[in-house]
Amino acid sequence: MPTKPQRTIFTIAANLRWSAVGLALNAVAVRADELPLAKHGPEATLNNSTEVTFDPLGVAAVLHNPRASLSAARLYTQYDRRFFIWPHTMMMGATLIPVKVLVEHLTATFQSIHPAITLCTQDTQNLPVVSNMVFKEFPLDFGNMWLGDVIAFKSSSKPANDFMIVCMDSDDDDNRRQSPDGPSKMTQWLGCSALNLISLINGLIIVAGIVLGLLSADLWALTLFFFYGTHWLAGLAVSMTSLVTPQKINIKKDPTPRFAIYQRPAGGTVVFKGRQDTMEAWARSTWEFNRSLKNSILHWFWTITGTLSAICSVACMVNMLGYMQLAFLGLLVYASLAEIVATRITRILQGEAEALDRKFLVENNPFRTTGVIRATVEVDKKFRLSALDWVGLKRMPSDQIFRDMQDLLARINEFQAEVEAGREVVPDRGPRWHEKVNEAFGRFAENRTEDPVLVARIQEEAKNALEKWWRNREDASLRTDEIKPPLV
Fold first, then answer.
1. How do the domains of the chain map onto residue ranges?
2. pLDDT in tens, 342-359
3. CA-closest candidate to residue 124, choices 244, 241, 243, 235
């Protein structure tokens, strides 16, 4: 318990302390007027401006765009270089792709997959199939985009009974003799010229933006278009080579025919036919980044310039003049529309190069058995589905009549092979009157206990398909004879 003198001392000390604080606050208040920030305190003001601005639209340059990633992947691979060079445009979201690649580089370890490979595989779709191989999925990407167009064929009035047959062997001897390797020279020239023009116009718009930025003394616009110009040049340099290529896989040569069946959700069946080694190479296809000094420099040049362009797309856009903002948005719109046109052109070129003589559509079939029989007997030997076990692959019921139908078709195929090899002669009345054919139909018809209407229908469909095959063969022979020059 403090004494009275002690309490007096404590009171005097407290008063002195508060007096010192008051003097300090007064001193700060006096000096505050002399500080530079005090003269510019926050004040509410209203600015009137008649300038048109497009600030919010600047984010369009870095929006997610799946077409941009696909375009960048095609730029890195240039898969169809022998026919055309893919032009990567500065579309909406194009500069976001290099940012993602850079982030993957920064977060990856030394054992990680190269980000360029990830870029080229992220749009790959796996096609679920039923096949007589160990592979149950086959990849679809921009390297075989023509297959996507073939799979999306236009259905007939009976879509469930349509059959699209695709020959996957590109080294077929008959194919090389009958058709040129790739699109016609005129088609290829027009397509390549259009693709080059798309890239050139893209570059000219960027150059025009740089010039306008200089003339208007708009440093922000000049910076933006400058970095976009360097990124466009980087893309042009990358397009001169293939940074990512298909990985070479050692596969044993095997001519055994294999089949893969894809059932479309919209109706229709797609059957892929090819050699064992061809189908295996397709199923195991993957990409690899060609690690070299030149490729690494091009990759980092494209990645860094694209990242800087993405940053400038937002940072510079809000400070640019209104008409320069409009010019930049015009670049994005043109590049986005040009990419769609370029995709259409390349699909035409790739389709003529790959799918022109490698697909055959069997359509307008009233029954599924009609389509199976026509695809097995009526079509040319290149597309003929001989030895395809429909029942074993569970694409047809396992009833005995359908098993016997497959045996019937197998015997007819043997007869067709003998005729095509010149070892059998077709009677004047037609192939259905040949003794081997009659024997095959007799074996199928004997001791049948199933629905007689179904039995008769299968026999009639097989006979009609055989007759149609023979008529097509005779017509082809007549056309060949007309083309031959007369003997002198």
1. 55-171+184-355, 369-483
2. 999 998 888 887 777 889
3. 244
